[in-house]
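Field log, afternoon session.

UNIT: design team B
ACTIVITY: writing a sequence onto a fixed backbone
BACKBONE:
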């Protein structure tokens, strides 16, 4: 038997009114949109009414941290649904659902969606898919599969109205079964006072220089190329402007950090661009931004956008996906077409040239996040939906499985 990884399953709990939710996700390594959402649910959900379990294919530091805090987190075997590893995953989850009296499965990403659908059918409990992007990287086989089996999900959470419209248009899910729940953020966490000048000095920027910043991994879909092209246009008119990019290098061909550095060098702005790489804590770095930018070619609903707005930063964002559901054009920032460096630069120049407009938009953005995208508001929507789905009268617990203790926390 291979070494096992994670917490052991508990003895079968007594029946109670508490809803028990099993989250299945492809990845639980480093912080991303899905990972942030899962952690927010783990820490924020009403634990007198709900208990959350997490099973993941690819675990890492986030899974370890969750285990260290006492959350039930399990590692699945990596393998296709129809492989031996897939069969073992199904058997393991089948036993887990009975042992822990799971009431609902919530899935993230394609692999987990189809695994969760199979297990929910075997155990006769509901399953909800959580869709968090516009499907820009979905493989053809997955697109076909969603059209065939999407109607069997008991519900679908989308991170924005834009994602809902997209998956319904593609014929993946029935419109009446799809519920948008926007990301949420703890606005009060972005009120800390920091020494902006010291932070700027630490990355080689003078106290009197303006900072235009972007947070996002370096990959094609984030549109870093257009951010740099826009930066070259801004630099021609703003000699004091510096540009900061915070995000890990995914080393995509043609869109890697090295490619972007070469692009900046070719436009003679390399000395004005600061690639800071991946950072765990970005709130202090966002605090030095005078203008915050999203240049993405596709977005479901950006957590970073909410972080910008909670930090009272004026925003220039591409009009893609759910961005327009957060940014009110001309009031909290500017929405510009994707792949249009000129319009991106125009928005940046407005804010750099008029501090009053920048301040007004930044404060309006913070108010909007506080009123519409608070973390408590998001958590409450999840709780309401979990209760609604698990109250279905036809749902039964996993049948024909004797009461046994699972000694393993990974399929064997």
């Amino acid at each position: 038997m291979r070494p096992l990884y994670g917490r052991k399953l508990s003895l079968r709990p007594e029946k109670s009114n508490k809803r028990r939710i099993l989250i299945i996700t492809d990845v639980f390594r480093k912080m991303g949109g899905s990972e942030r959402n899962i952690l927010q649910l783990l820490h924020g959900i009403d634990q007198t009414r709900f208990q959350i379990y997490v099973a993941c294919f690819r675990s890492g530091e986030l899974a370890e941290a969750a285990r260290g805090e006492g959350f039930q987190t399990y590692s699945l075997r990596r393998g296709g649904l129809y492989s031996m590893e897939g069969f073992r995953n199904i058997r393991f989850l089948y036993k887990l659902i009975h042992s822990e009296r799971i009431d609902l499965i919530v899935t993230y990403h394609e692999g987990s969606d189809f695994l969760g659908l199979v297990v929910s059918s075997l155990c006769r409990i509901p399953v909800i898919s959580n869709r968090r992007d516009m499907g820009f990287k979905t493989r053809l086989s997955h697109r076909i599969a969603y059209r065939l089996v999407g109607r069997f999900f008991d519900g679908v959470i989308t991170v924005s109205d834009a994602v809902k419209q997209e998956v319904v248009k593609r014929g993946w899910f029935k419109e009446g079964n799809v519920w948008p729940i926007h990301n949420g953020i703890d606005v009060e966490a972005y009120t800390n006072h920091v020494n902006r000048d010291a932070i700027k000095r630490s990355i080689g920027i003078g106290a009197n220089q303006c900072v235009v910043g972007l947070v996002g991994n370096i990959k094609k879909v984030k549109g870093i190329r257009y951010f740099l092209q826009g930066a070259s246009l801004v630099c021609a008119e703003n000699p004091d402007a510096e540009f900061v990019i915070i995000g890990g290098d995914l080393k995509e061909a043609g869109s890697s950090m090295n490619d972007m550095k070469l692009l900046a060098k070719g436009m003679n702005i390399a000395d004005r661009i600061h690639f800071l790489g991946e950072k765990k804590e970005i709130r202090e770095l966002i605090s030095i931004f005078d203008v915050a930018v999203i240049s993405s070619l596709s977005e479901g609903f950006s957590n970073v956008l909410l972080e910008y707005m909670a930090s009272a930063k004026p925003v220039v964002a591409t009009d893609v996906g759910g961005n327009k559901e957060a940014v009110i054009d001309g009031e909290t920032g500017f929405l510009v077409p994707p792949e249009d460096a000129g319009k991106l630069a125009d928005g940046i120049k407005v804010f750099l040239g008029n501090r009053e407009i920048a301040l007004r938009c930044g404060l309006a953005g913070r108010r909007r996040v506080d009123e519409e995208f608070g973390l408590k508001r998001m958590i409450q929507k999840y709780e309401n939906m979990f209760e609604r789905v698990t109250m279905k009268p036809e749902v039964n617990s996993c049948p024909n499985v004797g009461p046994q203790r699972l000694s393993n926390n990974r399929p064997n």
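LOG NOTE: The chain has two domains: 19-184+374-390, 187-372.
NEXT ACTIVITY: expression trials, pending approval
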